[in-house]
Amino acid sequence: MKKRNAAQRRLAGQYKAKTVMFQTTLFLLAWYSLTTTLFGSTVDVFLSDCKSFFHDAASFLQTFIGWTIDAGQSVAQISTKIPNPFIAGMVYWLFLILVVGICGRDGYWRY
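The structure corresponding to this sequence follows.
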């Protein structure tokens, strides 16, 4: 039992050291890329690139959210367009199970 606890503490220490090393490396890479970008280019070019990047990112998000809303509205209207209430209920529950299954599979609702 003591050997197991000692091994567990040793592995936990190694894991913590590797995590700190990884985080430090990421910080240094971010710092290096930021400083070389700021000092290697003129301010006008950098600001123009930033504006272009954020404009394109916002445009993509707006388009993606619009597609998601349109798809959700289309799926929500499927069960109301089926004349048989029993079949409409089955389609509703199948879609619900599909959505919950996809979210549960990716680990969104795991503890």
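The two ends are 28 Å apart (CA to CA).
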